[in-house]
Amino acid sequence: MARPSRIIFELYRDLDKKEVQTKKNKYQQFGITVAGGNGKGQELNQLSGPWGICIDNDKSIYIADYENHRVVKWKVNSNTGQIIAGGNGKGNQNNQLNCPTNIIFDKENNSFIISDWVNQRVIRYFDQNKINPQIIISKINCNGLTIDKNGFIYVSDRANNEVRRWKQGATKGELVAGGNGQANDLNQFHQPTYIFLDEDYSLYISDKENHRVMKWKKDAKEGIIVAGGNGEGNSLRQLYYPDGVIVDHLGQIYVADCFNHRVMRWCEGDEEGEVVVGRNGKGNQSNQLDCPMGLSFDNEENLYVADSFNHRIQKYDKL
């Protein structure tokens, strides 16, 4: 017979879980195109395979415009974007990028940081190019980026199957996840891509080729599977090449399930996720996606999706 303390613990745990289930956000199923959506191209009203995105407090969208080798800013309700980095053809000069994958803000230094993937560098741009850009990390197969409140930068390295934390000015990053070769054990990755850091310094990492999302707590030697991990597929227990990952204020994990053309939501400990948006198969209608990549929330927890192969950013209003 279970001890009373154990019964009480399980009761409160189940009540907490039910409370999260009733409170969790719901979203409009028809997305609004807030950037791009005018076909693939390099005009200021177009995007070409957008990857990472972030949203500022004014709801301006910063987009890693991957195939155009630039980062663009789209102000709210604008019909065109503004180039804020790159846009001078692909290359490795300071005014060039080569397949940027992600962008984050560094509020303390009034700058933004870009993973310049093919150039194998992470580069800092200051307030609209008034100061020359700085290469802050070089010789790294960078994909995902995030920054903590102390200014440490976290970078996923697809080639070395690891995530490292970099102190400002450091020449070598500290290993914080993976680094044990390419495989599917709990201390390994197979092409880690997007990353998210929560308030407890836990990292959520899209383990792309393993079709799962891993959570690595601070100082952990291995991660736990919090989404997917049941092979590639389209059931509610599976992911198919996951990319963008973000976590809301309730701890709900949102995943861009790229090859299933949908965004999934998982609660840690659940065996199944649920489809949040994109439940209508691959396509270019307002209730469809085609290879979603980056995800972001604005300050009202509206959901934004880089709808990569539709060359647009979709906004899904919270209901």
From TrEMBL:
Repeat region (NHL), residues: 40-77, 288-319
Matches recorded under CDD domains: NHL
Annotated keywords: Repeat
GO BP: any one term: proteasome-mediated ubiquitin-dependent protein catabolic process
Keyword Repeat: yes
GO molecular function: ubiquitin protein ligase activity; zinc ion binding
Gene3D superfamilies per the UniProt record, alphabetical: TolB, C-terminal domain (2.120.10.30)
Name of this chain's protein: Uncharacterized protein
Organism: Adineta steineri
